[in-house]
């Protein structure tokens, strides 16, 4: 039987529900939520703006895009069949491989028949009388569902810099998060990259290999550390497969769901020689070991942080020949690990190439984009291509771009204007039957591990409602206040919360995002799950059920 789609024209009778649940987004979150809700007998529709599955791994096709998570710690853990069948070929898989993986999952679990592509959700309005949500798509079609799950991604609303003239440029222009499907050649071209965050660092390293001339425009340097990626041999993959239970067990136990965990020693509890040897070992270890497996005080103690930052600064000085450029690449306004640490594969060495130039736009800001390039306060540049590696309106951006109206017609974006408030990052009081995966104040880290948990928690709640003949769940105000206070408390003492970054809700390219907030939960994932488990085990007393 064909699956119904959202209908064009006037809304149907509010009582005629088209679906039990509408899921917005077909990335890792949306795919898994669809699978789990089908399992409990729900009629589910997934609306996805893109033309394919994968979310992050569908949109970010820029050169060099790859994991910072170990591939085998990132894939879904719930299905033995998927684990048995899928071979990862690199320790940190590149984007095409991850996109292939998510397509394989979608086919294997027969998910596509309930996904409507090219369908951007414009608005979601709570219909009090019907006890249901009205979902409106950009093409004007509408439908009704009892529940809505937003799976719209914490890093999926791309932002361009607020520089005059962005539209004026006549050459090729790309945003890394909206990279085209057709091949893009840099061969011999004069290329500009604006932005040196985690994405910029990956893209710049790749583009430098073939560009005629590459000019990197850097506002703030980041503390980048080596990824140390390498292929996975067949024998290694067999070992990984046999070790999956241990891998996922470890991810369940660690603070950020990664394989890495903090060293129990303090920076000053060891001799200088031991410290140096440990840091050298971390600098040559793969992935985020250096960030998440460091001494326990590096991210909270100013002196420890300064000492480790000096260690990494020296590495940059050793790797970059021109010491004027090296100094530009060393962050001076924040310590190591207090912003997202970009993982690199030869990033610093590209500044030793004759075809690469670094421009600090802190020193000479960009005044405007011109039809032929761009103008800084110092000079005019001519380019064939501009690459915007300017990132995302993180955490709330993709939710803000949907007109979500809860009880009394109150807009979610407005509700959060005075500060983010959630219940466990999943619900907001006054928005009944609306559930967020990877919403603000949820556990992040190695994200799929948290996604699987959130998805199953939501599935269990909806199954509970069904079993008890209930149709509505809303967070209690006091529960929201309690959780929000807990999140704030968990952020205390973290050096990262004293720095402007997407993790503290600051984005100069987005109007109104210029004040630091606690945008994410910084407690441990096990603590987070403990809290959520307690709510479920107690029969959801923190929710108003009807
Ligand atoms: C370049 C990059 C590298 C990353 N690397 C890592 C990593 O190594 N490890 C890690 O843990 N995390 C990483 N992340 C974070 C990554 O976003 C998550 O790991 C994960 O992919 C999130 O999955 P998701 O399904 O929640 O969201 P997404 O993958 O972002 O998917 C959201 C989907 O929702 C759709 N959508 C949004 N709004 C609407 C709307 N209004 N209507 C319809 N559809 C909509 C989007 O089109 C998108 O397809 C990375 C992110 C980026 C950008």
Total helical segments: 17
Shape: globular
Estimate what percentage of residues fall within beta strands. Answer: 15-25%
What is the subunit organization of this protein?
single chain
Helix/sheet category? alpha/beta
Descriptive notes:
The structure is a single chain. The chain has 17 helices and 20 strands. It has 546 residues and is an alpha/beta fold. A hairpin with a 4-residue loop joins strand 5 (132-137) and strand 6 (142-150).
What labels would you give this structure?
disordered N terminus; eight-stranded mixed sheet; alpha/beta; five-stranded parallel sheet; 546 residues; binds flavin-adenine dinucleotide
Strand and helix map with partners:
Blueprint: E1 19-24, H1 28-39, E2 44-47, H2 56-59, H3 71-74, H4 80-85, H5 95-108, E3 115-116, E4 121-127, E5 132-137, E6 142-150, E7 172-175, E8 190-194, H6 198-207, E9 213-218, E10 225-226, H7 234-242, H8 244-253, H9 272-283, H10 289-292, H11 302-319, H12 323-329, E11 343-344, E12 356-360, E13 366-370, E14 373-376, E15 380-382, E16 385-388, H13 397-400, E17 403-405, H14 412-415, E18 434-436, H15 447-467, E19 473-475, H16 477-491, H17 525-537, E20 543-545
Parallel strand pairs: 1-2, 1-6, 2-3, 4-17, 6-18, 7-16, 8-9, 8-16, 9-12, 10-11
Antiparallel strand pairs: 4-5, 5-6, 13-14, 14-15, 19-20
Helix pairs in contact: 1-15, 15-17
This protein binds flavin-adenine dinucleotide.
């Amino acid at each position: 039987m064909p699956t119904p789609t959202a209908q064009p024209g006037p809304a149907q009778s509010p009582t005629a529900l088209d679906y039990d649940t509408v899921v917005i987004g077909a990335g890792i979150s949306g795919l898994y939520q669809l699978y789990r809700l089908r399992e409990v007998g729900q009629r589910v529709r997934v609306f996805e703006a893109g033309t394919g599955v994968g979310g992050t791994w569908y949109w970010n096709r820029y050169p060099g895009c790859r994991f910072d998570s170990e591939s085998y710690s990132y894939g879904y853990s719930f299905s033995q069949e998927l684990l048995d069948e899928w071979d990862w070929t690199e320790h940190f898989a590149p984007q095409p491989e991850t996109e292939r993986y998510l397509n394989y999952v979608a086919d294997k679990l027969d998910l596509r028949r309930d996904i409507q592509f090219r369908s951007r959700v414009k608005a979601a309005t709570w219909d009090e009388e019907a006890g249901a949500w009205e979902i409106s798509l950009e093409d004007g079609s509408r439908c009704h569902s009892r529940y809505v799950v937003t799976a719209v991604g914490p890093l999926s609303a791309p932002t361009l810099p607020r520089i005059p003239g962005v539209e004026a440029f006549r050459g090729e222009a790309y945003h890394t998060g909206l990279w085209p499907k057709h091949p893009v050649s840099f061969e011999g071209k004069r290329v500009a990259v604006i932005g040196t965050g985690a994405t910029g660092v990956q893209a710049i390293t790749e583009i430098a290999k073939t560009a005629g001339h590459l000019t990197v425009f850097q506002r703030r340097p980041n503390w980048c550390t080596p990824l140390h990626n390498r292929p996975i041999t067949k024998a290694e993959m067999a070992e990984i497969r046999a070790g999956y239970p241990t891998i996922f067990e470890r991810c369940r136990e660690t603070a950020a769901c990664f394989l890495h965990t903090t060293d129990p020693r303090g920076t000053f509890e060891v001799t200088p020689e031991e410290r140096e040897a440990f840091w050298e070992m971390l600098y040559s270890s793969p992935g985020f070991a250096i960030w998440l497996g460091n001494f326990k005080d590096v991210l909270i103690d100013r002196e420890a942080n300064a000492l480790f930052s000096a260690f990494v600064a020296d590495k940059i000085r050793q790797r970059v020949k021109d010491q004027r450029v090296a100094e530009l690449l060393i962050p001076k306004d924040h310590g190591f690990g207090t912003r997202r640490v970009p993982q690199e594969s030869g990033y610093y060495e590209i500044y030793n190439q004759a075809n690469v130039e670094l421009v600090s736009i802190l020193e000479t800001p960009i005044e405007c984009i011109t039809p032929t390039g761009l103008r800084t306060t110092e000079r005019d540049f001519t380019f064939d291509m501009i690459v915007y590696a300017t990132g995302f309106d993180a955490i709330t951006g993709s939710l803000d771009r949907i007109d979500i109206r809860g009880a009394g017609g109150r807009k979610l974006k407005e509700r959060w204007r005075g500060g983010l408030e959630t219940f466990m990052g999943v619900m907001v009081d006054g928005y009944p039957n609306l559930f967020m995966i990877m919403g603000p104040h949820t556990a992040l880290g190695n994200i799929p591990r948290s996604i699987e948990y959130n998805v199953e928690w939501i599935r269990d709640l909806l199954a509970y409602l069904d079993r008890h003949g209930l149709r509505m769940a809303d967070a209690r105000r006091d529960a929201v206040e309690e959780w929000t206070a807990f999140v704030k408390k968990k952020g205390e003492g973290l050096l990262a919360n004293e720095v402007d970054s997407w993790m503290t809700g600051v984005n100069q390219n987005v109007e109104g995002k210029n004040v630091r907030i606690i945008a994410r939960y910084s407690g441990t994932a096990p603590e987070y799950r403990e809290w959520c488990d307690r709510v479920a085990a107690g029969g959801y007393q923190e929710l108003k059920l009807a």
